[in-house]
TrEMBL record:
<dbReference type="GO" id="GO:0005634">
    <property type="term" value="C:nucleus"/>
</dbReference>
<keyword id="KW-0539">Nucleus</keyword>
<protein>
    <recommendedName>
        <fullName>Nuclear receptor 2C2-associated protein</fullName>
    </recommendedName>
</protein>
<comment type="similarity">
    <text>Belongs to the NR2C2AP family.</text>
</comment>
<dbReference type="InterPro" id="IPR008979">
    <property type="entry name" value="Galactose-bd-like_sf"/>
</dbReference>
Length: 145
């Protein structure tokens, strides 16, 4: 079973100047190098993905704009009807590079614990003085169950 990109509804903490047309969440998933989600200022911006069906997550791909990235990302997830639980902590580079992390390969977690109906990524420590986050690409790879 090959991992495939999981498409799902998503919510975000904020959008720069509420300008959804130019900086909205949809731009994280459009595979365009020209568009991005740009959060407004403030600490702890976040993205929540609501999967229509349970998903076994294998990889998380994220591409920030350097200078507007997060030094610390907390991943929380849950099954339907449950409370979010911390799954993993990522320490992304402050760069424009596509960054890939492998969910479920963290010590102490069984593979079945990466089966989720909801995933929340919290950007806890922005490299931007005002706390803004800019994400060009966000992709979750996995297997629909």
């Amino acid at each position: 079973t090959d991992a495939v990109p999981i498409v799902c509804p998503c919510r975000v903490s904020s959008v720069l100047n509420r300008d959804v047309k130019h900086f909205g969440k949809k731009h994280m998933f459009d595979a365009s190098e020209e568009t991005c989600w740009n959060s407004d200022q403030g600490t702890c911006q976040w993205v929540t993905l609501d999967f229509p069906r349970s998903v076994k997550i294998s990889q998380l791909h994220i591409q920030f704009q350097g200078g507007f990235s997060s030094r610390l990302c907390t991943l929380e997830g849950c099954r339907a009807g449950e409370e979010l639980e911390r799954i993993s902590t990522l320490y992304p580079e402050d760069s424009n590079a596509m960054q890939i992390s492998f969910a479920g390969l963290r010590a102490g977690f069984q593979v079945e614990e990466t089966v989720l109906d909801k995933l929340k990524i919290t950007f806890e420590n922005s490299t931007d003085f005002f706390g803004r986050i800019v994400v060009y690409h966000l992709r979750v790879l996995g297997e629909r169950l």
